[in-house]
Amino acid sequence: VLGFLVAEWTYRRYPEQPEGHLAKIRASVVNARAVADTARIVSLGDALLLGRGEAEGGGRDKDSILSDALEAVLGAVYLDGGYEAASQVVGDLFAGAIDRAAAAPGVSDYKTRLQELTVHRSGDAPRYALVTEGPDHDKRFHATVEVAAEVFGPASGTSRKRAEQEAALLACQALEGRETGGPR
């Protein structure tokens, strides 16, 4: 529900933008970290009923829990109030994020940016490697990304996506630095 409605809101706010630009805006608004940030703004974590271990382990502030909870709330609004109600809630919660992403699209979607860079340069897509450690309630992910036989990283995060985004950021910085004559 969230992805569809954010895509619709994005198109309605920026109908003149090319499809690729709209897709980048949408991706930066609906990623788990951005959705969790929106959940934090409305203090959704305070309303969650968590098990003792998860509550003591900081679950009320975990991106994965907050983003899943907000998506569940939006799904419930859709089921209870229909399309119009869900669209209104998404607009109220995400219009600012859509506008910020439109002003600087792709800033937080480094995997897409790296994909565009590498395909343009060599025609090869980046390849990610992931190592997971820690107990289920407190996992850490470590990612590297290989581009044209060069490995960047490792980068860490509390989710696979975040670790891969951070590894992609490292690769983008290095590759773009080379293009501009900056540090390697």
From TrEMBL:
Keyword list, A-Z: Endonuclease, Hydrolase, Nuclease, RNA-binding
Xref: InterPro entries: dsRBD_dom, RNase_III_dom, RNase_III_sf
PANTHER family referenced in this protein's UniProt entry, alphabetically: RIBONUCLEASE 3, RIBONUCLEASE III
Claim: Transmembrane is one of the keywords in the record: no
Identification of the protein by name: RNase III domain-containing protein
Record-annotated DRBM domain positions: 109-177
A GO term, aspect molecular function: double-stranded RNA binding
